[in-house]
Design goal:
The chain is mostly helical. It contains 10 helices and 2 strands; from the N terminus they run αββααααααααα. The chain has a two-stranded antiparallel ribbon with strand order 1-2. Strand 1 and strand 2 (about 25) form a beta hairpin. Helix 5 packs antiparallel against helix 6 (about 120-140) and helix 7 crosses helix 8 (about 170-180). It is elongated and about 115 Å long.
Length: about 280
């Protein structure tokens, strides 16, 4: 009976020192619940979201009363009636004409001259005008894989052109971001696979760099020591040359200033070593 009581007391004392953690029994460990940490999954950003691609909205407005492309400057258009003008307005045209007019107005924001069609700015403007249209279509039909792939390729092409422009002409790059109301988000580098061969290469390169740096430091220290003896010998030889020139009545090529300059150099080197 006493044995059973002692066993129960021992078990109770053991259980008091044990904490319950997520259904598992572990000794002297705190659970996440003890710290009141609540993790929430971040909201998923849809692929058709404008903020994901970096588009903050084009400053281009296409009204229903706007005229179809390439008809504004025609001579017949000046004498056309109101009914004809209304028929050729965007209101009575297909969605393709609306898209073309929006693209032309976007190109006018960044083109360099009237006939500009091949510059980086124009290519970026064309892709930028296509992205909101693709995002709108994808929002209406999220399972359309063809539009999804086209949107992804268009955004990546524009990022590539922006990256090229950023390297070649940074001021122009900032200007086009402001004109098209864009935010450039560079893609992070892909993580490399850790392998023994690549790691050994990096370790070997680092080791070789350390060895070279140590040899350079030792060589610099050796040159500094030799520099002291060089300037000391220089002071003595300059004094000897000056005395010989005075003794034999020759034109003086060595002055007191040269000797003093060499002596100051020796003092500077000695001070640096003492520090």
């Amino acid at each position: 009976m006493n044995l059973a009581v002692n066993c129960c007391k021992l078990v109770n004392s053991r259980v008091n020192n044990v904490y319950q953690l997520g259904g598992y029994v572990s000794r002297r460990m705190a659970s996440i619940k003890d710290y009141n940490i609540n993790w929430k999954r971040p909201p998923k950003v849809a692929i058709y979201d404008l903020g994901r691609s970096g588009d903050l909205g084009l400053n281009v407005s296409v009204k229903p009363t706007d005229i179809k492309n390439y008809y504004q400057n025609s001579k017949e258009w000046e004498g056309a009636s109101d009914i004809v003008k209304k028929i050729f307005s965007i209101q009575f045209q297909s969605g393709k004409e609306f898209k073309n007019l929006q693209r032309e107005k976007t190109i006018e924001l960044v083109k360099r001259h009237i006939c500009d069609r091949g510059s980086l700015e124009v290519k970026i403007a064309v892709l930028t005008s296509n992205i909101p249209y693709l995002q709108k279509v994808l929002e209406e039909s999220p399972r359309n894989r063809k539009i999804r792939v086209a949107l992804k390729e268009t955004v990546e092409k524009r990022n590539k052109l922006l990256r090229v422009l950023r390297i070649s002409d940074y001021r122009r790059f900032e200007w086009i971001l402001e004109r098209l109301n864009l935010v450039y988000r560079p893609q992070p580098r892909r993580p490399q696979i850790v392998s023994r061969k690549e790691s050994m290469k990096k370790m070997t390169n680092n080791y070789c760099k350390d060895v070279i740096q140590k040899k350079l430091d030792a060589f610099k220290a050796q040159l500094r020591e030799e520099q002291k003896t060089f300037y000391l010998e220089k002071v003595e030889k300059l004094k000897l040359i000056m005395e010989d020139e005075k003794e034999y009545g020759l034109d003086q090529t060595v002055t007191e200033e040269d000797i003093e300059e060499a002596r100051k150099k020796v003092e500077e080197l000695l001070k640096e070593d003492s520090v």
